[in-house]
Amino acid sequence: MTVLVVTGTGTEVGKTVVTAAVAATAAAAGRSVAVLKAAQTGVAPGEPGDAEEVARLAGPVITAEVARYPDPLAPATAARRAGLAPVRPADVADAAAKLAAAHDLVLVEGAGGLLVRFDAAGGTLADVAGLLGAPVLIVAPAGLGTLNATELTARELRSRGPAPLGVVIGSWPGRPDLAARCNLTDLPDVTGAPLLGALPAGAATRTPAAFRSAAPGWLAAELGGTWDAEGFRRGEGG
To answer: Which of 10, 22, 167, 179 has the most other CB atoms within 10 Å of its CB?
Structure first.
């Protein structure tokens, strides 16, 4: 796997911290890693964005953005309001391909969910994955309401090509409720994709050193880690 696209079922589900965990795990294994943010919104020029947050947590990774817009909106809307050129899927795919030529792993992080529009033509992160022929990792919330959005995301990916690589829970609560515990079984069932990890709530508040040390334990072997889905389920999430 040279390029991995990371999407979420929506905003604020933990895409950036999951991207950081995958990056930290790969870097710890000696792989060179680049992180590409397809479209950064809601951040002013000069302010750190999601890619910089990944680097803060994961350590020595190369970071890049294709486009940045100040309003915290969908990229197409934010570009229009700012009077700036929108980002196109081809722009993101080209940038990722160039990074892949010099790195063992390129992580492409989207903005919001899979079908959030980049431009007026309706280009999305799903189009980027298609252009790259890259697997897609879905980041989902743990609790009530996650099944519908995660299943819809997986169905859309399948309609366009290969099945999603898997699902990672972006923030697993310290005291999971009944819905969260049941979702450990139901998420793979409704998506047809394996559960590939669960990050503890507040993972990003750890020191960078503690985050990097713990990251492999939050991710399954498919992502370079040691996390065991069946054992996690048996313990009902710890």
So the answer is: 22
